[in-house]
Fold these 2 entries.
Entry 1:
Amino acid sequence: MYRTHTCGELRIANINTNVTLAGWVQRIRDFGGMSFIDLRDRYGITQLVIDENTNQPVVAQIGQLGREYVIQVKGMVRERSSKNMNIPTGEIEIALTEILILNPSLVPPFTIQDDTDGGDELRMKYRYLDLRRNAVKQNIELRHKMAQETRRYFDDQGFLEIETPVLMKSTPEGARDFVVPSRTNPGMFYALPQSPQTFKQILMVAGYDRYFQIVKCFRDEDLRADRQPEFTQIDCEMSFVEQEDILNTFEGMLRHLFKKIKGIGFDQPFLRMSFEDAMNNYGNDKPDLRFDMKIHELTGKLQGKGFGVFDQSPYIGGICATGAANYSRKQIDELTEWVKRPQIGAKGLIYIRFGNDGVKSSIDKFFNAEELAEIGNLFGAKTGDMIFVLSGEKKKTLGQLSELRLETGNRLGLRDKNRFVPLWVVDFPLFEWDEGTQRFYAMHHPFTSPKPEDMEFFESDPGRVRANAYDCVVNGVELGGGSIRIHDQKLQQKMFKVLGFTKEQAEYQFGFIMNAFTYGAPPHGGIAFGFDRLVSMFSGLDSIRDVIAFPKNNSGRDVMIDSPSTISKEQLEELQISLDLKDNK
Amino acid sequence: MYRTHTCGELRIANINTNVTLAGWVQRIRDFGGMSFIDLRDRYGITQLVIDENTNQPVVAQIGQLGREYVIQVKGMVRERSSKNMNIPTGEIEIALTEILILNPSLVPPFTIQDDTDGGDELRMKYRYLDLRRNAVKQNIELRHKMAQETRRYFDDQGFLEIETPVLMKSTPEGARDFVVPSRTNPGMFYALPQSPQTFKQILMVAGYDRYFQIVKCFRDEDLRADRQPEFTQIDCEMSFVEQEDILNTFEGMLRHLFKKIKGIGFDQPFLRMSFEDAMNNYGNDKPDLRFDMKIHELTGKLQGKGFGVFDQSPYIGGICATGAANYSRKQIDELTEWVKRPQIGAKGLIYIRFGNDGVKSSIDKFFNAEELAEIGNLFGAKTGDMIFVLSGEKKKTLGQLSELRLETGNRLGLRDKNRFVPLWVVDFPLFEWDEGTQRFYAMHHPFTSPKPEDMEFFESDPGRVRANAYDCVVNGVELGGGSIRIHDQKLQQKMFKVLGFTKEQAEYQFGFIMNAFTYGAPPHGGIAFGFDRLVSMFSGLDSIRDVIAFPKNNSGRDVMIDSPSTISKEQLEELQISLDLKDNK
């Protein structure tokens, strides 16, 4: 062992102990007669001190050291004269008697500090240096802790962690698969799992009634910001349960994590909200409930008063921003430009201000004070508040109102990263109609079960059928989702029919799992949580990238190892494939 | 919830409780006035009883049931009149009042029992039924427990579990990679990791001084028996440590697992043996030390006495099989045939029998009693023992003696599956000479460090240099191996030179990690354990297949989901690759 203690360990109680430490040189300060080195390792920073009068050979070595050199040092712990109470080792320092350079370092291309001067691209290229920064290290440690606590919870609840294959089979439904050519089966391919969905349902058929896995999944998508081609899920499935059992079990998991990791408890059961209420009241199936600011429909109230924009809109809705009446003309203009950006796409923004000097609005021409007051009552608006109104096609406008609500929440400081409001969104529609292909798609997946009470519409009005499907949402972020599956074959066949599959197509795509289901499939259901997302929420980050040790960039490249890369002619020949590059680059 | 209790839970204390159970019909027995159903779930089997006099509607349902039907039942717990003390629920039964068929089942193609009538191929095709068998289920549960305990140990020791990428980069050295074409980077490929070796060393450079991961690895090899294209490793790396620290830490891991899982403790430190001793004394770098039966070299003693076979052999060696003197002529012939099989490849087998009637051998013609007795003394042979002798080229003969030793151990019942003898094999050679390519290869990998005391031979006689490399061997099975890595760049360059790399080749293949090492790489080393192998050893199995939920067969196929499979023309086009099948099938 190269050390007796770590750099985060020594305290006032260790004074007069001879110690050996090893780590990286964070900083060297030379004060004439006295030099100081901050020595860093995973556990902290310890101050080393070299007195020029007493340590001649050691003093000579200091000149050779540079930032990020790896050194081993020996010395005695002593009390600092000027203490630093901001760090745990701040009351002591080591009076050095020996320095051994274990490895030199080139000058790193950016500073190893919380506020580094390295840009994103540089940090990713030198990720091994970036990972030394405390800000990144904390996330990696948090991720470890959360993974262990997740497993502990499930283990205590009688779940078994079972590894499912990574070399799987390509399925045409769903997102694009990554595929792996098989050398021993020429012309054939494995696929990497988008999720272990099939295998976890198979495990239920196999009788493993409580399964979980923290597992890598893969999706060959065009990468948007904050998507990764490989990501990690907490994947779970249970048998002999109903929706309520699932919600309780996984509410338990989140409570366990919040308690163990963040010391946060929730007095009340998690809120429940139907998909329909979420859409109507928040314009969004993953509402951020850290603040209220519900959307109210105003179509009936605001039409027929001669304001053309409203009269031509199938839907009018608004939100009431508490305490925003003092917004200046400039702020309102800014917000108007904000909603008009192509990403939001609103035509304009109407406001009704409830100021000290009475109610004023941008549509005063069409509405009298009484009518505006009535609108205010609908929202419970008080003096000091401001109502914002958007109009247009219903679904679109609700979406815009949702964005406006979140942005207003941001501007009013209502979205505190240290407050967490968890929510179950339930009663999702079973089907989604796609205009392009003129067919229904399964909103969750084709094995999701319908609500029995909606079965009367199953064939006559599929769009009206709700599913036993649920999402777990915290602070407006969807952390996980799942459903109770269909275990009855007749119902499954009906489902395929509505989805427009012929019997042959259904057989081709899902024959294997349907076959497994003929051998005694129990009632079952499950859920999957995005683990990267969960960790990033706990660490207060907006992006998942910094909770992943080695993330890929937006082109799916690992710029540190320079991957993907070309492979040799011999490799291609062995796999019996050839490149067929188009001139589209 | 479909049940109040599981099928493994009810005891005499639950008598007179009304319960609801759910599970699979294991067996139905009709005794005229009385019917019995064995209901099975993951937790056990509970006996259900239906009395024809009292439960008319329920009686009628029994006729509809078949093996593996999924049912929910209600009834009252009562004491059995005829108890079955072999199962935990054997003192009670449930007097049924209700049966609900949750799902019917086709007749399974084999019996769901420990001794199933299903062959290997059938079991793999219907793996979901096979997994219902207690014999398989126990392995899956054991695997879960071992994974949790492994993590617990490392977590307690301050290790961080850090996920490394699955979409990596192909490296030409080592075994064959599985590759993944990148759609967004046409003509380029990711590779699946054969191990996270590069990334774990990068993590050491990044300062994460105790890393572990239970991780899937991939190797596109021609599958021998008991190899899987995807397998699971316990992968570990530590910084600021020497070999001794690593051995102690991972000996600790094994002790923890043996204690927690099997209740077995080891009084003594694990044995240590040099590679050289292992090869000379056991003919094998992973000796099974459950029994002694050391190999002794007899070249000097047995040559020059006129026995041509010996006189022409560069090496003669033997083992002493304690208590084997009573082997019959037939048994010796059988063993002779066994060593002559092509897999072993010996020319013949010489024996020296130490019977009650004196010493007899198959080479009596050439050696007198005194000479044979002297050989006996060398082995410490006693009356009742038998010495077997093989001769030929040294390395080959030692290998044959090793096989013979193991086989003899088997036949003498010396290899008890419930006894475990762990061993560290150390001081492996750094290089292996390859006759075919006339160059040295790194025996472990090119980052393995040499023993400082052997550095004098590094350039003059590389074959003589020993490495800081170690294997963990239990009962003749290599469970894991690792090394202290090179962290000094000058030494690393010397290493590449001996391995025959030009500077450019080294740069091309290892430039990225070499570059990382210029920014302050700490002294470090690590180890990886084969998790599948470890679990199969703990479960007393010879094969790793039954400790994997969904294994692939010897052609790398998953016969359950029928994978790998063809993919669509559109998929190939998007990936800009085409098939280039040879007519070699």
Entry 2:
Amino acid sequence: MAPITDAYESRAARDAAIIMRRDPIVYTDLTGHIGPGASLEQLEGYKRDGFMLLEGFFPEREVTALLEEVERMASDPAISGREEAICEPGSDTVRSVFKVHEINRVLSRLSRDRRLVNIAKQIVGSDVYVHQSRANLKPGLFGKEFYWHSDFETWHVEDGMPDMRAVSCSILLTDNTVSNGPLMIMPGSHQYFISCIGETPDNHYKASLRKQEYGVPDADSLRFLADQGGIRSMVAPAGSVVFFDCNAMHGSNSNISPYPRSNVFFVYNSIDNTLNRPKYGLNPRPEFIATRDEFITIKPIDPDYLRDVSKSISD
Amino acid sequence: MAPITDAYESRAARDAAIIMRRDPIVYTDLTGHIGPGASLEQLEGYKRDGFMLLEGFFPEREVTALLEEVERMASDPAISGREEAICEPGSDTVRSVFKVHEINRVLSRLSRDRRLVNIAKQIVGSDVYVHQSRANLKPGLFGKEFYWHSDFETWHVEDGMPDMRAVSCSILLTDNTVSNGPLMIMPGSHQYFISCIGETPDNHYKASLRKQEYGVPDADSLRFLADQGGIRSMVAPAGSVVFFDCNAMHGSNSNISPYPRSNVFFVYNSIDNTLNRPKYGLNPRPEFIATRDEFITIKPIDPDYLRDVSKSISD
């Protein structure tokens, strides 16, 4: 059964609502010992803005290795036939591959890279596991926009994630420029939960939510969020990393530039925030979209797995 | 009859082609007296890049007056019912109004504003008339992308414009930011005419070209143009003005930001470059989209028409 009261109820009423966040943002006490990872200043920025953009996080050599690995994986027939691979409509061209932290050796190591995991642990204040992972290859010329959304809204309703205690980590494998539809985040938006317009009670138990229609924030709330904190575009060179709060309002415009955008995306969730049942009697989404039963507490590894590019790809 | 040879043939073959520009870019001799308008440096930049971005061209007071006038016009029922007004699908919300240089008193004066016209005359090296004019109100949240195109390709094929001797002038009435889908131009692209894939000869004389399918540059050519000169986004505050060559490759990404983008757009064509018949036996487009018979050589006026905002709007 769902709990009787839900601080972050969504898709339950005919009206949208703006609800103040109740959960911490950075779970580590910033007045004490913050441990290895991001600096105090970076964590304070994250707390204030809901994200941190770390430019040039990975050296060029490592980024090149990662991009080659993602492209190799996307063109591997053994991958494109899997359920984890999402292809362009009517084509074999792979646009996204889910669960890369398990099905790809290099990206599995990347997900455990101490440099990333330490920061995730600072933010959620505990050990972490990968709630979702993905490699994205957004094509040039016809890259579609991705409308504003809070990941937590979806994860809370569709996956039964209890609290705002997860952080997304996007590793940019190509340059993100003003013109190729970079990730946009509304600073400060993570402080507000936008309860989305929902089904009438009679339809609560419908088994299939269509994303296009549900979990979409309303225009007034988006205007409110943009007015209070503006919009920041994650314009940054390949190798940069963005950590952003699970409730940060984000999206991206289309990409008509001829240049693709590729990234690898990990969602680190606190091991104290594992999934309950989805809301409204929804069926759980597949394990490769939302880790429910097979979660593994991450043991961070040293970054030398990328030291020898050719070795890391061929071994 | 169409001329036997057409330096800029398009939509005639199954293959795309890149053709070197044969026409001048700035028709005024830059080694001599350049007259009033833009500086020599600005004109040389325009010649090289195919555009010039003039930030803060109109003072804030004038921009406010212009934006108010455009918004007033768009909400005027006498305007929204006209053929020149383009509404959102299934709505009375006006997205664009054509022929504003004739149907609106303030914008008519704007089209003759000496500050603008002088620059247009420098570029095309002659007197000018308005080939097309438009006020655009691009909505926030759901502003659609506009795919890459050369205006000249359309004007040459569909309107019978002989030479590359026209300049577009976009007056930004709202801030154009990184996140609200600003105009993007490929610098240097005006040097190349991209001949688009076309109908087979049997279908040449079809009366209706659908824009979605014709006049679309191919992926290889776009990549070539972007590689040679990059992509520049016209990020600039309200009141800025962009002059760009009729053959500059341009477009814009979608606008999911909550902020609309409004501008007024004039195409100044040389009076020595008036329209011939459209290609392929096409019917001429309506006069409000392409001035053919009713062109009037512009007599520049002093900018004092915007001095008293309330007067200029109410008189």
